Amino acid sequence: MLSGDTIVAQSTPYGYGGLGVLRLSGKDSLKILKRITKNKKQLTPRLAERLTVYVNNEPVDEVVATYYKNPKSFTGEEMIEISCHGSPYIIETVINACIQKGARAAGPGEFTKRAYINGKIDLVQAESIANMIVASSKAGLNNAMHGLKGKLSKSAKEVSNKITDLLSYCEHLLDVSEVDIQKDNHNYVKTEITQIHKKLSKLIENYDTCRVMTFGAIVALVGKANSGKSTLFNCLAGNKRAIVNEQPGTTRDYIDTQILIKGVPIKLIDTAGIRDSKNKIESEGIDKSKELIKSADLVCVVSDLSQPIDAQLVDYIKLKSNRYIIINNKIDILKSKVKLRNKANNVHISALKRTGIKALEKVIIKQLNADKIPNNINGASTPRQYDAINDCIDSLTNIQTSLLVSFQLELMCFELENALNSINGLLGLSANEKVLNRMFDTFCVGK
Amino acid sequence: MWVNNIMKPSVFDVIVVGGGHAGVEAALAAKRVGVSVALITMNPQTIGRMSCNPSIGGLAKGQMVREIDALGGVMGLAADSTGTQYKLLNKSKGRAVWSPRAQVDKREYEKFIKRYLQKKNVTTIEGEAVSPAVNGGAVLGVNMSNNDQLLCKKLILTNGTFLNGLLHIGDKKIPAGRMGEVRSEGITEALNSLGLKSGRLKTGTPPRLYKNSINWEHLQSIDGDALPIPFSHFHTSFTPTNEPSFAVSTNPLVHQAIWENINLSPMYSGDILGVGPRYCPSIEDKINRFKGRDSHRLICEPEWKNSDQIYLNGFSTSLPESVQLKALRQIMGFNNVELVKPGYAIEYDYFYPNQLKRTLETKKITGLYLAGQINGTSGYEEAAIQGLIAGANAALSAKNHKPLVLSRSEAYGGVLVDDLTTKSTPEPYRMFTSRAENRLVLRFTNASTRLAEKAFNSKLIDNKQYDIMKKQQEEVCKIKEACKQPITPPVANPVLEQISEPEIKQQIKLKELIKRPGVMISMFIPMLVQKPQVQEPYVYETSLEADTEIKYKGYIKRIDKQTKDILKNDSLALDPKTNYKDVEGLSSEAQEKLDITKPETLGQAMRVSGVSISDVAVLNIYTAKKMRVSRETNR
């Protein structure tokens, strides 16, 4: 990927549209464009040029090409953006033409990776690009924009500089004669650590919100077979996606859909009913349900009011999940007119009759902490960013809670170095190839 | 010309030029490996001389002396035989950086070294070497100033500060190697003409004071540790004297006297050269760097037993003699002080050490090795360990054996060589604990665990020495094993009460108790081990090492993980003939720096300054591709 070959890929989503944009990046970009368009004219950087693409001397499309001269391009290389007409067939033909003339189909995230390698953006900014593309809410987009503009990078760089200063200060103390170390040295280290700790904590305090706003929250519906999960799923999703059948065990794997509740993006997942099943496919579905319980942001236990609640399941969820609510379904079949009162994590509905749904939505949003979204949130929004900052905080906490007490300098230096590596890893300054590849693999081709 | 003509082969396997700390260790190491060795010196009287401080060891250096000893070197033995006061430094900082240090009798020290060389049958030749004799890019001998040519397979240059040495005292300049000793000329030019690049460095030494001119009543006496810790692993008993040294403090008047004349100091670099924060050799620098401090501590150290001259530790300077006197006389007790020798700076040639392989052989000339201050380092210990590495490798290479390469993760010596060969520091390189990322495992108490095996395989130590070190390691294991035993409240609590530690309520494993910072294994040793299997001088440190291994277990585990990465990258060899200008994708800075350094491994390349993480990615792919190509063509 770094050997300087030229890559090509479609940058707009696959499908029919008014336009389809593809990008060429690498040192042969201009040469390849000349070959596919038979254009002899010198292209002026950043000036859109109307050209015709030929395949086997047959014109296939009228396109608009814009040339970006290195290093003033997104990737930092010679780059051309070609706007074709938006038919998948045309776009594929133009891409194939480029490949025939010497380009290579780009791997996932390769354009952004080149931009990173060529120092055009740092790792946080690269992630922000991915986040902007997937961002499913205004707040998420906002945070991604901040990331791209380098707001999180700037904060991380500040912290990195501060830790570097403090580390060299401590290293220096390690190397000077003992009699030169005094109380003021201890106090300085202590205040600095406290300040850095505070700064970092700020960057992750809104993590859940940032992540939810960018990627959506995962809300899983679980419960005994035939408790009405799929009916509720359809009710919330507003269509008939899940198969509803009175036979228990109808939903064998899980299905999901993207919905918006009060502007909050949610990935709603309907799981297999949990019960002991002899059916192999179905029991695989049940295993997956158990996995989901662990990873979901919110677990909704759907329970049939006419049946005793599955206490074992509730206990299991209490143990494995951070947040859960109990949804008592089928209030429509209750004979008595008992007043049913909702609590913070206990609501009553009828999925079939669509009663109590508004109240349920409110509870879900509240449980996700998404009812009060701060304006202008800035901070970690991906697990990678969160982990890096958290590792850094862990090291500092270690110093604060134990090492400072007896001023164990060499161990403090060790922890500070770890902290520095974590925060530099966030920026991609010390990330190894493995981390990079994993990160850029999550991108779609063409970004 | 022959000083001792024990044997004179027509061709020596190894010739060492220089009889300082590097030269001595080089000659002895080569001898231990089992080849014929000669040591050339301008003056046999000065062999083993301590030209500056009357002490061995200290921060990070103490660990290095231990390493030298584990590799069979002489420095630890010599210091232990002539030490007058022992102190474990850095006790307030955390045990991985605890460093042994000893005051030594300089005169006895050099006598010991000379006797030792004789005992080991090292041929000593008096004369001045002027240039290596080279043919076809390989060494064949050394040319002497009297037009003799001595033949050898391997040549080690350890010329120290003598290459075109120039003394500075204020604006006075005196050509010399040390004060009162002739400098050597011609070597630099000869090596330059062979294509080796040289630069110039400065280092300094403090003034020596007349003992009788000091009013000792005003000085504060400092004793050494009651329990002295030896440098060498091989004693059966160890009872050095414990003679006090004496401390005084500078005051604002002293600082003012220096500050007013600071422009007269050639050594004062201050902010001008941007010397790093880790290095502050001169009093001028200290005063500039710590403007908030109105006092610095100075130690008066006798240079030898009943010495009439006193070494003033902490007052390295190149100010004019009159300023030195004026400043010192502001100190209580020094009001009438007189100088035997003023402090001075010495400027000398050195060769950029990134022209060396990790064996300290020059990349350009086969069989030519450089060690010690000629590589831009400062300090006895730094010189000695380089000498040992160069001497061992020259001999191993002469015998066609595998080289001795120490990794950064296993020894300060490894850090030293790696830093020298990958970075070119613009200042004299002194070892600090902060240079070693692995310092938590580079302890003075585990040097033998780290190095004995390697030393034995390279024949640097004999069976007996190896067994002694093995036994010490076994003792540590035994103590650790014993700590897995449970301990009950009635046994533990009386001990805990004595040290005001919280009592235990239930029986726990002893090692859990040891994990408390305030609890030491030694408090329980009588209950643990019947009778220590190591010699008496090592009873304390084996228990200390076991204690550390238990207390630092979590950290050591984390480091081991990092070490694996270091070792992996260090085992990935790069072709020394690579033309980095041809490697596409490298930044131009990386191309330039790598072309100068020509690193031996990917790990080394990563540590060359100016090489970024994306450059490393490029190198990774480049080498992988090359390996694939060569595999395919070999098929």
Keywords:
heterodimer; A: 447 residues; alpha/beta; Gyrase A, domain 2; Four Helix Bundle (Hemerythrin (Met), subunit A); Rossmann fold; 3 domains; 6-stranded mixed beta sheet; 15 helices; B: 635 residues; alpha+beta; FAD/NAD(P)-binding domain; Elongation Factor Tu (Ef-tu), domain 3; Arc Repressor Mutant, subunit A; 4 domains; 8-stranded mixed beta sheet; 6-stranded antiparallel beta sheet; 20 helices; 36% helix; globular
What does this structure look like?
The complex is a heterodimer of chains A (447) and B (635). By secondary structure, chain A is α/β, with parallel strands linked by helices. Chain A has 15 helices and 12 strands. Helices cover 47% and strands 17% of the residues of chain A. The mean pLDDT of chain A is 81. With 635 residues, chain B is α+β, with helices and mostly antiparallel strands. Chain B folds into 4 domains: 2-202 and 347-457, FAD/NAD(P)-binding domain, CATH 3.50.50.60; 208-345, Elongation Factor Tu (Ef-tu), domain 3; 482-556, Arc Repressor Mutant, subunit A (Orthogonal Bundle); 572-634, Orthogonal Bundle (DNA polymerase, domain 1). In chain B, strands 1, 2, 3, 7, 8, 9, 10 and 21 form an 8-stranded mixed β-sheet that branches. In chain B, a hairpin with a 2-residue loop joins strand 11 (166-169) and strand 12. In chain B, helix 1 runs parallel beside helix 9, helix 3 (75-82) crosses helix 4 and helix 12 (463-482) crosses helix 16. The longest helix of chain B has 22 residues, at 613-634. Chain B is globular. Chain B starts with a strand and ends with a helix.
